[in-house]
């Protein structure tokens, strides 16, 4: 079903001309070009001198959090969603807050640690070996148990509904899916992009035409400082799903990134890119690579507690320590490493297991998801995550509606027709596997 994009249309995760100067305007009307997977055309890697354009084109009311207590705390402490604008309340964490997410830095030394079962040397998307005993965090058997996705109710009636859904999706021809994507591409800019275009903030954007809407951007601190990141809420039936879609950090935005994670009480980061792909920097390493050496920032200290390399993604557990207070926050970092330089994964199986494991790991705060630009692969992740949750709860879903909701909150989510088709392929594979069990 999936088409093939040319190298010229695949370089930002998978941007076009790095030599083009920064422009005042934000995203322009799409012309069928790719954004998130087309970064391979970049010639200059000094993003402070030249800012490329992106390479790919660029929600029931029950909260979907695995820990109800923590999720309610996040909602009241950090954000209230309205129809257009978001209101944010920031406060300094107190020692009485959630024992599950905050603790003193002194607790770090006594924790168990994982090591990789992989013997590859350090490098891009690698972690320096600590020489500590290997402790497996998750086994392939456990990952396999995350698929197929099992609905809460799997009786004759629900199976019939799923069969009908499968038939409807199978009837969609490739040109039907492409027509849907082209219709999505006609969506105009729905809000202002003033913050991202301010002179003070331009160097904080990895790509000059991927900017957050002013109404949904994630503000930092009491002064609501800028980061290229967007709050995204997707509604499907009785469920709401909260995410932060953001670009891959650059050297000058690493501190901002960790501030965002801590202020929003996020416990999971999903990274869907390698640091370098096809010789092009997609994302700068923003974490420590050794258990012995923390990453020292101006306001934060990032410690690597545990790590494991699986066949298709890397698990890292970090502790973020706020230097001014000594308070810390635990974050699980899950980096998918099998997305090819061009196009989409040849097999959906690895990505399905990865998405499922990210969802299983989620406890509190919005899920932080990023690739390079924070729209292409990030959009695919958000879409299929919502669909998987819908299947589990016996809800119907509409892929085009989900993507429409995303694009209303961050411009260009799911950048290419290949990525859009990949969403359909993943869902078809999941439904076919599920019905095969019956």
Automatic annotation (TrEMBL):
Q: Which superkingdom, per the lineage?
A: Eukaryota
GO cellular component terms, alphabetically, are: nucleus
Record keyword Nucleotide-binding present: no
The record, for InterPro entries, names: NonRcpt_TyrProt_Phosphatase (IPR052074), Prot-tyrosine_phosphatase-like (IPR029021), PTP_cat (IPR000242), Tyr_Pase_AS (IPR016130), Tyr_Pase_cat (IPR003595), Tyr_Pase_dom (IPR000387)
> Which parts of the sequence belong to the Tyrosine specific protein phosphatases domain?
349-421
**Keywords from the UniProt entry:** Nucleus
- What start and end residues bound the annotated signal peptide? none
Domain named Tyrosine-protein phosphatase: residues: 177-430
What this protein is called in its record is Tyrosine-protein phosphatase non-receptor type 20 isoform X1
What Pfam families would the database entry show? Y_phosphatase
Gene name per UniProt: Ptpn20
Q: Looking at the record, which segments are called Disordered?
A: 1-71
Q: Which PANTHER family match?
A: FERM AND PDZ DOMAIN CONTAINING 2, TYROSINE-PROTEIN PHOSPHATASE NON-RECEPTOR TYPE 13
MF terms (GO), sorted A to Z: protein tyrosine phosphatase activity
Q: Give the UniProt subcellular location, in the record's own words.
A: Nucleus
Keyword Nucleus set for record? yes
